[in-house]
Amino acid sequence: MIELIDPVTRRLVDHGLAETVRAHGWLLAPTSPDRAAYGPVIFLLGIAASWLLAWLLVRRLYHGRVRRSIPWACGFPWGTPRMQDTAEGFGQPIRQIFEPFFRMQRELPTPFDERPRYRVSVDDPFWHWLYRPIASAVERLARLVGLLQQGRIAVYLLFSFLTLITMLWAVGR
What we know:
With 173 residues, this protein is mostly helical. The chain folds into 3 domains: 2-61, no CATH class; 91-123, no CATH class; 127-172, no CATH class. The chain is built from 6 helices and 2 strands.
């Protein structure tokens, strides 16, 4: 097969393996005389022997008896609702993977709590680093504007008049 493909590889990469195969045999598939080679036939025989050994061991050692149990009890019939998986158990692996990207606060019960309480709060750190200062500044500005709007009508009209004069002066320049 290598000799049949050799003209194609010579045109593509200017190198062929037909001479090397003729000189060293076909049991190993060499890439070049100075490099290591693997034996595809030996590899195939090793895989087939491993598969056959596993099949024979299963046929010889498997007893064939079926054990029946309650489907959701995992073979333990004395389970209580306290032993069942919760949303905490299902979500924990995902939270642990993404924990470096979030701020987490956990309240986990001990195994001896009569009434266990699970509480996990997850915050976005970007909110505290980036958005929280902006939100605080906007809130302070809104309070100042709110103070202007809570005064007497005369003060409000004075602010409106001064704003109008300032705008006319800026446009007239």
